[in-house]
Amino acid sequence: LRWANYLRADIKRGEFSPEEDDTIIKLHALKGNKWAAIATSLAGR
């Protein structure tokens, strides 16, 4: 799965934008350490 995701051109790579950072912080406050649930809210990541 990781290799398939690496090959996908529509997935963003690199550092998170300030907006994405804010989204991650807010979602972590709501959902805790449920990173799979948080990841579904980050389109293209």
Automatic annotation (TrEMBL):
The keyword Nucleus applies. GO terms for cellular component: nucleus. It is found in: Nucleus. It comes from the Eukaryota. Residues 8-45 form the Myb-like domain. Residues 8-45 form the HTH myb-type domain. Keywords: DNA-binding, Nucleus. CDD domains: SANT. InterPro entries: Homeodomain-like_sf, Myb_dom, Myb_TF_plants, SANT/Myb. One of its GO terms (molecular function) is DNA binding. This is R2R3-MYB transcription factor.
